[in-house]
Amino acid sequence: MNNHEIDFKLFGEEMQCVEIELDPQEAVIAEPGSFMMMTDGIQMQTLFGDGNNTGFMSKLFTAGKRLLTGENLFMTVYTNHSQQKRQVTFAAPYAGKIIPMDLARLGNKIICQKNSFLCAANGVSIGIEFQKKLGTGLFGGEGFIMQKLEGDGFAFVHSGGHVIEKHLQRGEILKVDTGCIVAFTSDVNYDIQFIGGVKNTLFGGEGVFYATLTGPGKVWIQTLPISRLAGRILSYGSGNRKEEGSILGGLGNLLDGD
What we know:
This protein has helices at about 55-70, 135-140, 200-205, 225-235, 245-255, and strands spanning about 5-10, 15-20, 25-30, 35-40, 40-50, 75-80, 85-90, 100, 110, 115-120, 125-130, 145-150, 155-160, 165-170, 175, 180-185, 190-195, 210-215, 215-220. The protein is of the alpha+beta class. It has a single domain, classed as Mitochondrial biogenesis AIM24 (Double-stranded beta-helix, 4-Layer Sandwich), CATH 3.60.160. Residues about 135-140, about 200-205, about 245-250 and about 255-258 have low confidence and may be disordered.
């Protein structure tokens, strides 16, 4: 294996964290801000990009690619410099699930939504994946650029709500809300499709497009995208209770203490 071979444990249900166990001289890379705790003997170092590049221009180019996907310019590497096993723990940024992915069993590459990467074994490459079709890039919800994780070690991505894992057979098509996609293997074909119909478009409330994922391959779907959760919170905070009539809406606000 080219990547470090790490062990891990998941803790929690809806607010999860992952504990990575490192042998001497093993390391894990993580997004800044995901760190939770670590035992003595582990040292952290902040680097440009994912730490796999040598030379200033190469590091700068890698960091620039990460900036395009909405990620931080820097990555943090945690290395066990002691002579015993040590642990470092990372927490998901919001309620949902952490998904461990063994890249060696997933074709050495997965494509995931922006901001979903949490941490990975040292040596895993975190880059960008351009959607080749213009329509997919413009209307796909996840944009023209997605993340790609490459290597033969473990990587961990986080999602919102519950996660459903689907195994698509060759030619099998799954139609998904664009925001509900967490990740898919590189052999899955990703495209977008117009919903169609005037009433569906204007009053359906589900957007104008949805994603089509065509097998073979594996996909991970989340039940609560962070964008949908944020929209509900903003709508609730504005006092616009659409599910209740004007009288009941006011009464509901009164009972809620508003």
